[in-house]
Amino acid sequence: MNKKNRYSSGSVLTGSVFIFIGFVWVMRNLGHIDFSLREWWPLVLIAVGLLNISNNRNVFSFPGWFLISLGVIFLLTTNHIIEWDHIKKFWPAILILIGLSVISGRGGTKKPDSSGDKDNYISGLALFSGFERKVSSRSFNGGNITALFGGADIDLRNAIISPDGARLEITALFGGVELRLPDKWKVEINSTALFGGVGNKYKSDDPGDGKPLIIIATAIFGGVEIKN
């Protein structure tokens, strides 16, 4: 497996956020700056949301905009710019974000090829529910899986990756996704986790020189598990 997985952009972001907060807190305790973590902590949510949109290469990424929206709401309310009573009127906007995410298919991933095999590209949304998917594609291109207050179990052990490689985007938002892969795939994982985790238990016997499966995994108050 590619050793680049050891340091994901999510880990860099998380570490940078803690370094910044720690530094600012020390400066505040020393009396050098006036900073209240209670008022500015929502910036962390906004930063993670922007990273998610960037990683997924899709401006309609629901998890990204969900985090940005939460961050903006908390930022405005903790700084007493707006009141919670006004926020309650706009909660249905979450449905709009979900709809845009489904329609766009989080379009950074390749669509099915001209062979017409629908298994070449997988797409699924577990919304307050769960589903299982077994894929036996002979030229797997990737796809996107989102678990929102639900769960998904994806089995790719009988699939063959496309000669051009594949890109699979996985988001667990208050939910969980389990992904099973064949033993000899080359895999690259780019993960982002916030109050959740991305577990990588996958071991490749002989990944060879082919193109990799690139996994963009986001876990927010949820979990993603990748294994054989």
SS-based class: alpha/beta
Number of domains: 2
User: Could you give the order of strands across the largest sheet?
Assistant: 1-3-5-9-7
- The geometry reads as globular
Written account of the structure:
By secondary structure, this protein is of the alpha/beta class. The chain has two domains: 3-103, no CATH class; 110-227, no CATH class. The protein is 32% helix and 27% strand. Strands 1-3-5-9-7 form a five-stranded parallel β-sheet. Helix 1 runs antiparallel to helix 3 and helix 3 (43-56) packs antiparallel against helix 4 (62-78). The longest helix is centred in the first third of the chain and has 21 residues, at 9-29. The radius of gyration is 19 Å and the shape is globular. The model is unreliable at 1-7 and 106-116 (pLDDT under 50).
Topology, element by element:
Elements: H1 9-29, H2 37-40, H3 43-56, H4 62-78, H5 84-87, H6 93-104, E1 121-127, E2 130-134, E3 142-148, E4 151-155, E5 166-173, E6 176-180, E7 187-194, E8 197-200, E9 213-220, E10 223-227
Parallel strand pairs: 1-3, 2-4, 3-5, 4-6, 5-9, 6-10, 7-9, 8-10
